[in-house]
């Protein structure tokens, strides 16, 4: 449990960073296909989502799942 507060603190900032990064990419990203494969996009939010699900179960990780979906949408994926 020593890593949980650190992960949560850094994880809270990730969705904001992704959204900020996506504000400029959203205009050009909506016109073109994603540049990455979905498995390779958003590694930060994917890792946090996966770790949360393994440790706490899917029901307890809705905010991390949604943060990863938002990141994928910013990257141009329709999820």
TrEMBL record:
The keyword Chaperone applies. PROSITE patterns: CHCH (PS51808). InterPro entries: Cys_alpha_HP_mot_SF, Cyt_c_oxidase_Cu-chaperone. Residues 1-11, 20-31 have a biased composition (Polar residues). SUPFAM superfamilies: Cysteine alpha-hairpin motif. Keywords: Chaperone, Copper, Disulfide bond, Metal-binding, Mitochondrion. Transmembrane segments: none annotated. It is found in: Mitochondrion intermembrane space. Its main location: mitochondrion. Residues 1-36 are annotated as: Disordered. Belongs to the COX17 family. This is Cytochrome c oxidase copper chaperone.
């Amino acid at each position: 449990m020593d890593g949980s507060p650190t992960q949560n603190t850094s994880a809270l900032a990730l969705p904001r960073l992704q959204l900020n990064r996506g504000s400029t990419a959203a205009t050009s990203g909506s016109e073109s296909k994603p540049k990455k494969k979905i498995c390779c996009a958003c590694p930060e939010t994917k890792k946090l989502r996966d770790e949360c699900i393994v440790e706490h179960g899917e029901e307890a990780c809705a905010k991390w799942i949604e943060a990863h979906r938002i990141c994928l949408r910013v990257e141009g994926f329709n999820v």
